[in-house]
Amino acid sequence: MIPTITLKKGKEASLYRKHPWVFSGAIATDCTSLEDGQLVTVKSWNGKFLALGHFQHGSIAVRVISFSEVDLNQEFWNTRIADMVQLREKLVLLSATNSIFRICHGEGDELPGLVIDYYTGVAVIQCHSIGMIQHLDEITEALRLSLGEDLLAVYHKSAETLPKRHAITDGYLYGEVPTPHYAKEDGITYAIDWINGQKTGFFIDQRDNRTMVGKLSHGKKVLNAFCYSGGFSLQALKNNASVVYSLDSSQKAIALVEQNVQLNAMEDRHISVAADAMEFMKELPEEFDIIILDPPAFAKHLDKKHKAVQGYKRLNAHALRQIKSGGILVTFSCSQVVDKSLFNHTIISAAIESNRKVKILYQLHQPADHPIGAFHPEGEYLKGLVVYVE
Question: Per residue in 99-151, pLDDT tens?
């Protein structure tokens, strides 16, 4: 028997708009006896069915799986996963030059809490809600049906994304492939390690932005700050940048970018720097034509927003003071609580503080395999600007 959660009167409007979250403050039912990950039915104050979803104690109390009364059986998962794979096929993301893409992007693919990334035959599942853990077997089987012989293995990695009290164990659900595993993005080979690397092993969401920045890099001196595995660096080198500096505070990241540079035989114009980006940016060793700032999220919660904005402003002001006249700053925020408008204003404030005239050339966000749900604007988490500095 699936337990029922009843909303307070007047709190059903967001579900009528198909927003996939139910906040704890909207709930009339006493939920203390419910367990994290439990499947629940959500009803209005007068008993009308609204949604089916996973319950979790916290601010976001229910993540909606369906706005219809359905059985979450194997057929349900087969259909959902097949739809996602077919969309990626329409986007022509699997080709001779590209074998890295996202299969499932949580709310954007109507499965909140579920991320699935694909690396040359390996699907890496990461759950951001306990509810999705209950369906790993069905998801794995659905991936096998949709991907067929192209699927070599399925790896589950959620221990770092879910509360430690749940004691989640990472591991292979199907097949097994040694790491590092090699995959291509836009013709560049990367060593992917989903076991020891960040997230699922790679930051797929910058694919289109990396390609675009690469095209601006011909003959330029480029600094790639917060480089991690070096995606922007390798694109710049591929497009004949004169020299590329890869900067990261993590020695593991520097080792990874150097491995990827060697894999693609691009060592002759590449320099690695292990240092704090904020400090390094204060006094650069030379004038750069292009500076790329792709920091980790400065704020993951609303109460950290002000501090995050000040961090983005300070970092970008340092870069704008140091960049060559006529240079290009490519700057990003992946903090969900810092929206596009606030980020734009923050970069403009940094330009005013550094006394540089700037023009916004491009506004960037995540690629099509990270879709933004039309009813879930919060899904547009990645913001970026390409700024010309006079």
Answer: 999 999 999 999 999 999 999 999 999 999 999 999 999 999 999 999 999 99
Contact 109, 77 (CB under 8 A): no
Please, are residues 367 and 309 in contact by the beta-carbon 8 Å criterion? no
CA–CA distance, 132 with 128 (Å, rounded to integer) = 8
Residue stretches of the chain with pLDDT short of 50: none
Strands (E) in the chain, as ranges, are 4-6, 21-23, 39-43, 49-55, 60-66, 100-105, 114-119, 122-127, 153-156, 171-174, 181-185, 188-192, 221-225, 243-248, 270-274, 290-293, 327-333, 358-364, 383-389
At residue 195, the 3 state secondary structure works out as coil
Question: Which residue from 133, 126, 113 is spatially nearest to 158, judged by alpha carbons?
Answer: 126
Residue 134: φ, ψ to 5°: -65, -15
- Taking the chain, what is the end-to-end CA distance rounded to the nearest angstrom? 65
Residue 259 neighbours by CB distance under 10 Å: 15
How far apart CA 328 and CA 389 sit, in angstroms, is 6
Neighbours of 60 (CB within 10 A): 14
For residue 206, the surrounding DSSP H or E stretch is none
The number of residues making up the chain comes to 390
The pLDDT tens digits of the residues spanning 144-191 come to 999 999 999 999 999 999 987 788 999 999 999 999 999 999 999 999
**Contact call for residues 89 and 369 (beta carbons, < 8 A):** no
For residue 295, is the peptide bond before it cis, meaning its omega torsion is within 30 degrees of 0?
no
3 state DSSP class of 3: coil
Instruction: Write the DSSP symbol of residue 356.
Output: -
Question: Do 369 and 102 meet the contact criterion of CB atoms below 8 Å apart?
Answer: yes
For the full predicted model, state whether its pTM sits above 0.90. yes
CB under 8 Å to 334, separation ≥6 — which residues? 205, 296, 297, 381, 382, 383
DSSP classification of residue 104? E
Decide if 23 contacts 61 (C-beta within 8 A).
Answer: yes
pLDDT value at residue 302: 67
Place of tokens 């979250």: 21
